[in-house]
Amino acid sequence: MSEEKVRTVLVVDDDDDFRWQQKVQLEAAGFKVLEAANQEDAQKALEATRPDIALVDLMMEEVDAGFTLCYHIKKKDPTIPVILISAVTSETGMEFDAATPEERSWVKADAMLAKPVRLEQLKREIARLLKA
């Protein structure tokens, strides 16, 4: 019987409670979880390791920090799938997506999810992006 590789998820969010919730849920689902509270910490983590997938909050220390971090991740390693997570829709009513190639070309995320994130939805997106 072959052992399945444990997948690593980098969770980047300035909300400690959100990071903790994602860590607990993803670890229970069998993932290894790395955490970063901001763009700088995430970039340091990316220098030290290569996650299988990254979950990135849009608005952290700067309102566009998530976009900047997505760009950095894709520039460093375009094969790392990125899910951009945001409360923008619930806070502003504005909707944006990464559904089309044109949107992905400037967003630099492979998927976008709105907060609050449902675990089943997150697991489905991770599985789709990792082709598991």
Describe this structure in words.
With 132 residues, the chain is of the alpha/beta class. It has one domain: Response regulator (Rossmann fold). Helix content is 45%, strand content 18%. The chain contains 6 helices and 5 strands. The chain has helices spanning 16-28, 39-48, 65-76, 88-92, 101-107, 119-130, and strands at residues 8-12, 32-36, 53-57, 82-86, 111-114. It has a 5-stranded parallel β-sheet, with helices on both faces. The longest helix has 13 residues, at 16-28. The two termini are 18 Å apart. Mean pLDDT is 84; it is low at 89-94.
* CATH uppermost class: Alpha Beta
> In terms of per-residue confidence, which ranges show pLDDT below 50 for 5 or more consecutive residues?
89-94
CATH fold description: Rossmann fold
Instruction: Count all strands and give the number.
Output: 5
User: Percentage of helical residues?
Assistant: 40-55%
Please give the radius of gyration in angstroms: 14 Å
